[in-house]
Amino acid sequence: MSSRVKEEMRKNLVRKIKAGEELFPGIIGFEDPSFPRWKTRSSPARTSSCLGERGQAKSRLIRSLRALLDKQSR
């Protein structure tokens, strides 16, 4: 992921947090700091993996990250 995309996503995430918006609609319990109980890891190839138990909304969360991009970037 390029730094520009990371910065854009971070900026939009911070804006949503400050505005009190729901961060990841459809994922129940994400506001609980103990959820999700999974790990992320990056590799030198600039890819990421999400590891965790079944049913913790890993795929849904990854798909919803697209909402953190500006409309012209989607």
Describe this structure in words.
This protein is of the alpha+beta class. The chain is built from two helices and two strands, in the order H-E-E-H. It has helices at 3-19, 58-64; strands at 38-42, 48-52. The protein has a two-stranded antiparallel sheet with strand order 1-2. Strand 1 (38-42) and strand 2 (48-52) form a beta hairpin. The radius of gyration is 13 Å and the shape is globular.
Structure in a nutshell:
The chain has two helices and two strands; from the N terminus they run H-E-E-H. With 74 residues, it is α+β, with helices and mostly antiparallel strands. It has a two-stranded antiparallel ribbon with strand order 1-2.
Radius of gyration: 13 Å
Walk across the major sheet and give the strand order: 1-2
Total individual domains: 1
If you average the pLDDT, what whole number results? 76
Q: How many β-strands, per DSSP?
A: 2
Characterize the biggest β-sheet: 2 strands, antiparallel
Number of helices: 2
What is the overall silhouette?
globular
Regarding quaternary structure, how should these chains be classified? single chain
Q: Identify low-pLDDT runs.
A: none
Q: How far do the termini sit from each other?
A: 14 Å
Which class do the helix and strand fractions yield? alpha+beta
H/E element order = HEEH
| Strand-residue proportion | 5-15%
Strand and helix map with partners:
Elements: H1 3-19, E1 38-42, E2 48-52, H2 58-64
Antiparallel strand pairs: 1-2
Give keywords.
2 strands, 74 residues
